[in-house]
Amino acid sequence: MEIIIGLLIIAIGAFCQSSCYVPINKIKDWSWESYWLVQGIFAWITFPLLGALLAVPEGHSLCELFAASNSFNIWMTVLFGALWGVGGLTFGLSMRYLGVALGQSIALGTCAGLGTIMGPVLLNIFFPEEDALSKLTFAVIIGVVVTLLGIAIIGVAGSMKAASLSEEEKKAAVKDFNFPKGLAIALLAGFMSGCFNVGLEFGKDINFGDLTPDMYKTLPATLLVTLGGFVTNAVYCFFQNYKNNTWGDYKKGNVWFNNLLFCALAGGLWYSQFFGLSLGKGFLTDSPTLMTLSFCILMALNVVFSNVWGIILKEWKGCSQKTIAVLILGIAVLILSSFLPQMI
Hints:
The structure is a single chain. By secondary structure, the protein is mainly α. It has 13 helices and no strands. It has helices spanning 2-18, 21-24, 32-53, 62-68, 71-126, 138-164, 167-173, 179-193, 195-202, 219-244, 253-281, 288-312, 321-343. Helix 3 (32-53) packs across helix 11 and helix 5 (71-126) crosses helix 10. The longest helix has 56 residues, at 71-126. It is globular. The model has no long low-confidence stretch (mean pLDDT 84).
């Protein structure tokens, strides 16, 4: 029962994340770089900080925790967060060229597989005594392979969509639709986004041990990862503000309340995925396989719900029944990948 509860919590977080781009559509009169930076303040600083505070027992502080933790692990967690930040930037662009459904599917699928594998591999390089590679069991590998198979099927549906629609229909569904360009960006986004899980692996011991409940133990590391990602994104957004002369966006007082509200909502929804991941893992401690695969499961469920939103937002409108059938098959395989490892 606890495993079901854990997976359900992760699924709720995935649904929230997949919904985070809906509020962004309500933002008015701001350039991409302006609203991306402001929503990032909520998504990568404000809410992660509030989450990390839940891991701090009474009478202690985050500063005390970070001062007492291994400095190498802290800096590696932040570093991989900065690398993940590159993935976050290109992640947004992948949806610009492919839409919410297809963009998230390809990027998150790559992220799911590589993020799960890279963590233990890199930890084994730096800390061979921990035998991190032992986490990559047969069941874990099967889970990753089935996840990637589901992503590949959805990718096929995406290519079928690109081939079957006219340029006018593509633009009607996704304004800047460009499959080759979007595919390249989505693959880069997925590779770099996988660094998030690597950062979590390096920061897995940054907590107060038995004083921190299991469900909150990864939240301090999550804060460090998102902090690194925020730095990367802020530098790029400020550069774009300078390049495009969009500093004036922040002076448009008539839209501040509206834009701040929807940026906060988008940021909160985005952070929910990793808050849910931490809470969900607290119920999976009796299953080492699911603990290792939890990040992959989260990304797979993100893809499932992003495609549900893609259907709702009519991004697949005009596609043939065959294309929709392939899409649904891919979604079904992804759902199966969340439960299959536990059956092996």
